[in-house]
């Protein structure tokens, strides 16, 4: 069976923003740096479900040192697709982070609220260090200061899908990152 490609959903895609090759290049660059920084530290890579799963898979495979991985599911209540800062844990890590060097691998930072909360929470639990890799950042919308150590791409304030990111649970398996046509949002929340 063939992979889903942008051509297959072309009527819904406005344009491709970050290509498959660009995603891979940026992840490899960051993972190479992180492999040096975390040498001998057995870092714990943490991803927030579900959006960051693709990024974590690619990032971990691009690292040249042994790592552990764990996942967390969070919900943030707010209006529409804006996160509110009131975060609830739906599914917690199975790892005790006390004394661990944690690297949060994130798909996208929008307001920064989810990530700011998570970084604080992991520090509260006694992590030896907490750093962040973010594949995408929308800096024009940052409301909370988040200290990102490994940067990916800065993108405009547009709603994007693909490489783990969804609209209404769809488009996660696109292998690149794209902007949807506004017509897709008509009648839905965007
Ligand atoms: P924040 O707390 O930074 O506002 O929320 C970040 C989360 O909102 C991301 O992890 C992602 O789930 C969602 N999000 C923010 N911007 C986008 C976007 O452009 N597309 C998609 N699909 N999700 C987004
Ligand atoms: Mg995310
Ligand atoms: Mg989503």
Automatic annotation (TrEMBL):
Any single GO CC term annotated in Swiss-Prot or TrEMBL for this entry: cytosol
- The EC designation for this entry is 2.4.2.8
Q: State one molecular function term (GO).
A: guanine phosphoribosyltransferase activity
**What cofactor does its activity depend on?**
Mg(2+)
Q: Which InterPro entries match?
A: HGPRT (IPR050408), Hxn_phspho_trans (IPR005904), PRTase-like (IPR029057), PRTase_dom (IPR000836)
Query: Known catalysed reaction(s)?
Result: IMP + diphosphate = hypoxanthine + 5-phospho-alpha-D-ribose 1-diphosphate; GMP + diphosphate = guanine + 5-phospho-alpha-D-ribose 1-diphosphate
Task: Please tell me whether the keyword Mitochondrion is annotated for this protein.
Answer: no
Location comes to:
Cytoplasm
Q: Which residues cross the membrane?
A: none
Pathways per UniProt? Purine metabolism; GMP biosynthesis via salvage pathway; GMP from guanine: step 1/1; Purine metabolism; IMP biosynthesis via salvage pathway; IMP from hypoxanthine: step 1/1
Fetch the Pfam families from UniProt.
Pribosyltran
Limits of the Phosphoribosyltransferase domain = 20-167
Q: Which GO terms describe its biological process?
A: GMP salvage; guanine salvage; hypoxanthine metabolic process; IMP salvage; purine ribonucleoside salvage
Could you tell me the keywords of this UniProt record? Cytoplasm, Glycosyltransferase, Magnesium, Metal-binding, Nucleotide-binding, Purine salvage, Transferase
Which family, according to the similarity comment? Belongs to the purine/pyrimidine phosphoribosyltransferase family.
Q: Enumerate the NCBIfam families for this protein.
A: HGPRTase
Q: What is this protein called?
A: Hypoxanthine phosphoribosyltransferase
* Source organism (scientific name): Bifidobacterium pullorum subsp. saeculare
Phylogenetic lineage: Bacteria, Bacillati, Actinomycetota, Actinomycetes, Bifidobacteriales
């Amino acid at each position: 069976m063939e992979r889903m490609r942008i051509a297959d959903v072309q009527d819904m895609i406005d344009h491709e923003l970050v290509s498959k090759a660009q995603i891979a290049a940026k992840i490899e660059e960051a993972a190479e740096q992180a492999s040096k920084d975390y040498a001998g530290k057995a870092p714990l890579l943490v991803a927030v479900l579900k959006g960051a799963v693709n990024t974590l898979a690619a990032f971990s495979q691009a690292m040249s040192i042994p790592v552990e991985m764990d996942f967390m599911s969070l919900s943030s209540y707010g209006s529409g697709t804006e996160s509110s800062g009131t975060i609830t844990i739906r599914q917690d890590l199975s790892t005790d982070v006390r004394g661990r060097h944690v690297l949060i691998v994130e798909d996208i930072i929008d307001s920064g609220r989810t990530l700011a909360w998570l970084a604080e929470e992991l520090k509260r639990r006694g992590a030896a260090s907490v750093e962040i890799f973010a594949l995408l950042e929308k800096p024009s919308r940052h409301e909370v200061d988040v200290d990102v150590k490994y940067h990916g791409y800065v993108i405009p304030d547009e709603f994007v899908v693909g490489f783990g990111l969804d609209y209404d649970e769809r488009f996660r398996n696109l292998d690149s990152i794209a902007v949807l046509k506004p017509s897709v949002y008509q009648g839905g929340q965007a």
